[in-house]
Design a protein that fits this description.
about 300 residues; alpha/beta; Rossmann fold; 2 domains; two-stranded parallel sheet; about 10% strand
Length: about 300
């Protein structure tokens, strides 16, 4: 296992789960934007301000870059793309250049399956598909991937790119947080018949396990790695899983999906209909072949 890891975004949703898992096998430094430094914590500052990070990165063998701007449910920026680019692309490339300068061996970047698009139609996404990002967040992640590939070529820094789908776990973020909030209110939810779609998600612990493997596996750098749980979920299964994670009693009403789609279209929310009832499947066979890694089973945790 790697000697010393630095994890950015260590206090975030994924970071809080990832850091303890990595610490089973390695010394892990939590990289935080602000706070007090100690033997297990280093302060990065605002990466978007392009700080000098040579002291912070001293002795680090591998950086795991989880920090990002994502899950903006109510965007209030006049130019969202520029904000996403500054945080998710420009700051990432600055960190990678600083890492290469500090003789860090490997840089693991958490990208997004969104670089492929936001929906599949019968054919799962594959890592070698032509990118087709659908939103500013995904555009910024793809731009970062392209910049990191150049840095790897120019400096010899080993770059690992992981493209996860939505991450499910306790106290999730983004759209899954919105669904969890509805469940926690105890309201009847009209998803009792929403069983016909297939959406790949990744459990936080499964993603953390892949990251652990990628810290030192010789096959990890190169083509981006797709990751997902061992089987896709229907919308109803997602709701049931969120309820189980929060310990809430679930009340489902059997409303036909066609009725729900029609209601959302009438409200001008066809995009939400696609997110709730469309497919988004991921083929992770290339990841398993390259790494000899199989996602830990999540069947026992499903309802």
């Amino acid at each position: 296992m790697t000697d010393m890891l630095l994890v950015t975004g260590a206090s975030g949703f994924l970071g809080r789960i990832l850091v303890p898992i990595l610490r089973r096998d390695a010394q892990v430094i939590a990289g935080l934007r602000s706070g007090t430094a100690d033997e297990n914590t280093r302060i990065l500052g605002d990466l978007g301000a392009f700080p000098d990070l040579q002291t912070v990165l001293s002795g680090v063998d591998c950086v795991v870059h989880c920090a990002a701007r994502a899950h903006v449910l109510h965007e209030n920026s006049d130019d969202p793309l520029s904000v996403f680019m500054r945080v998710n692309c420009d700051a990432t490339l600055h960190l990678a250049k600083q890492a290469a300068q500090a003789d860090v061996r490997r840089f693991i970047f958490l990208s997004s399956v969104g670089v492929h698009g936001n929906q599949t139609f019968g054919t799962p996404f594959r890592a070698d598909d032509t990118p087709a990002p659908h939103a500013a967040y995904a555009v910024s992640k793809l731009a970062a991937e392209e910049g990191l590939t150049k840095i790897a070529h120019d400096t010899g820094l080993e770059v690992v790119i992981i493209r996860p789908p939505l991450i499910i776990g306790p106290q999730p973020v983004g759209n899954l947080r919105s669904l969890s909030n509805l469940i926690e209110k105890g309201l009847p939810l009209p998803f009792g018949l929403a069983t016909g779609n297939r959406r790949s998600l990744v459990t936080a612990e499964v993603l953390a396990d892949l990251i652990r493997i990628c810290t030192d596996h010789p096959g990890a750098p190169g083509q981006p790695l797709l990751v997902a749980d061992d089987a896709p979920y229907s919308t109803r299964q997602i709701i049931e899983r969120l309820a189980a994670l929060s310990g809430q009693r679930l009340r489902l009403v059997p409303v036909p999906v066609s009725v729900l789609r029609g209601a959302l279209r009438a409200l001008g929310r066809s995009d939400m209909a696609g997110q709730l009832f469309g497919d988004l499947e991921i083929d992770i066979s290339a990841t398993t072949a390259r790494l000899g890694w199989v996602p830990p089973s999540t069947h026992s945790s499903r309802v």
